[in-house]
Design brief:
17 strands, alpha+beta, five-stranded antiparallel beta sheet, 5 domains, disordered N terminus, Beta-Lactamase
Amino acid sequence: MCFCSKYILLKNCILERLRRSYLFFLETVAYMSLKKSYDELEQELILAKQAISKLKANVIPKASALADGEAKFKAMMENVSDVIGIIDAQGITTYKSPNVEKVFGWKPEELLGKGAVDHVHPEDKEWVTKAFMEVIGGEAERLNIEFRYLKKDGDYAWVEFNLFNNLDNPYIQGLLINYRDISERKKADQDLLESEERFRMLFTNMDDTSSLYEVVLGEEGEPIDYRFLAINPVFEAALGVKSSDLKGKTLLEAFPKTEQIWLDTFRKAYKTGKSQRVEDYSQELDMYFEIIAYIPQEGLLSMIGVDITERKKAQIKERENQEKLKEQNEEYLAINEELNERNDEYSILNAEYKKQNEALLKAMDKAKESDILKSTFLQIMSHEIRTPMNAIYGFSELLTEPELDEGIRMEYSKIVRNSSEQLLAVVSNVLIVSSLETKQEQVVKEEVLVDKMLDELLTIFMADAKSSKLKLSLCKDEATNQLKLTTDRTKLIQILTNLIANAVKFTHDGEVVLGCSLKKDCVKFEVKDSGIGMSQEELEVVFEQFRQANKSIQKTYGGTGLGLTISKAFVELLGGTIGIESVLGQGTVVSFTLPLT
C-alpha cells in the first residue's frame, strides 16, 4: 500500500470512530431519560458535549494533518524527476507516480495491472526479466540496470532503473522502483567515444613525431625523467624504435644522450604549465628538431617534434652562398678598380650580381616570413586544438562523478559536444586548405534555390544571436525570388557561413545584414556588419593563409585565420570574384559575385 492510500485509510478510521461515539451518546441519553430528571439529563448532556469537543479537538487536527501530508505527497510525486512505482511478486505494476506521463507519455492508469516488462525493448526483455526475478527471489536486495523503454509516442528511451526489494514491507508488499530517462547521457557517452577515436586518429596520423609521457618526480617534487606512455608511427620511423620497445622505459633510459636543452624545455613546460618551443640539433640522430612541449593534464607531458633538418641545411647552404657571393662581389669590385679599360664590362657584371644579390635577399626575407607564418600557424593550431581537447578531457572526467547533478551533467555534456565540434572544424579547415593547395578540391554543381538557402542560413544564426544585442536581417531584391543558381551548394553555404560567422564574431552589438541581388548574368551576395572594422594595412593581408587583421584578434577572438582564405579560394573555384571594404571602428562589407551557370 502506498503512502497516500495509508493516510487516507487512517483518516477514514478516525472519522468513523467519532461518528460511532456520537451515536452511542445519543442512545445513552435516550435510555437515561427514562430514569433521571430533566436537570440531571441536562447536566450530563453538557458534560457529553464537552467530551465530544475534546475528542474533536484531538481528531480534527490529526485528520487535517493527514490531508496535508497527502497533498504534500501528491505534489512531490508530480514534481519529482524520477518515476516511482511498485511491482508485486508476480511482476505486475500496482502503482505509478503521476509524473510518468510527463517523462514517458503514459498515464498511470494505462500501466496499472500490466506486466512490468511489457514496454521493455524486445532485445532487452529477456535479461531484464531475469534481473527482476533475482530481486523477487531474494538473490539481491537491490539492483541498478540500464535498458531501453518504450514511450507512448513509439520511440524507445534509455532508462536507468533501480529496484528495491520491499516484499516484506506491509505498506508496499512488492518491488519499489524508480527510473529516469538517460537518453541524452547515452548520446553524450557515444559522442565522447567518437571524439576520443578522432583524437587517436589525429595522434596516429600526424605528419610530425608525437609522444606522451608520465612525469617522474624526484624527492623534492622536481621532474627528473619522463616515462613513455605512447608514441605515433612517425616517431617510430624517425627514431627507428617500436612502441613496444619503449613501454615502461623513461626517456633517459631509452635515450641516455638526450640533449640537456630538451630536458630544460620539458622542465620549464611542467613548472610553468605553458607550452615551450625550442630548436636543437641532435648529434645522436644527426637531425635538427623544432620541439613543442606542453602539459595536457597534471602529471603528463606531451611533445611534438618537427623535423626541420632540410630547412636548417638549406639555411646553412644559403649562408655559405651569401658568403661566396660577397667574396665574389668584392673580387669583381677590385678588378673593376684595377681594370678601368674594362669598366663597362665589369659594370654590367656588377649590376647582374647586384640583381642576384637582391633576389637572394628577397628570397631570404620570404623564407623568414614563411618561417614566421609557420611558427604562427603552429602556435595557433596548438592553441585551437589544445583548448577544446582540454575541455573534452576535463569535463569527460567530471561526467564520471556518480553524485553529479543531472542538470550539471547535461551542461558538461554540452561543453564536451561543442568542444568536439570546434576541434572537428579546425581539422576540417586545415584539410580544405591542403586540398586547395594540391588542386584536389572538386566542384559538384547542382541547382540551388537561393531564397530557401538564405532563409535557412539566417534562421541558424538568429538562433545563436537571440541572447545578445545583435540584430540579424536579410535584404534581397525581388529579382532573386525563386531564383535558381547552378553551382556547388556545399561550397556556397560554407562561403556564406564563414562570412556571417566572422561578422557575428566581430560585432558586439548593432546589426549584421545578409544581402542578395541579381546583376545581369551574375548573383551578388553581400554580408555587412557594424563591428570593429579594419584598417587599410590590415585589409591587404586579410585573405592570406593563417593571417588575421592583427595579433590581438587571435588572442581576443581565437580562430585559425583560414576562414576568409577558404572563402576566397571557393569563390574563385566557382568562377566568381570577392572583395572587401572596411572602416576601422565602423564595420565591414564583404561581397562576392557568382555566375548564374
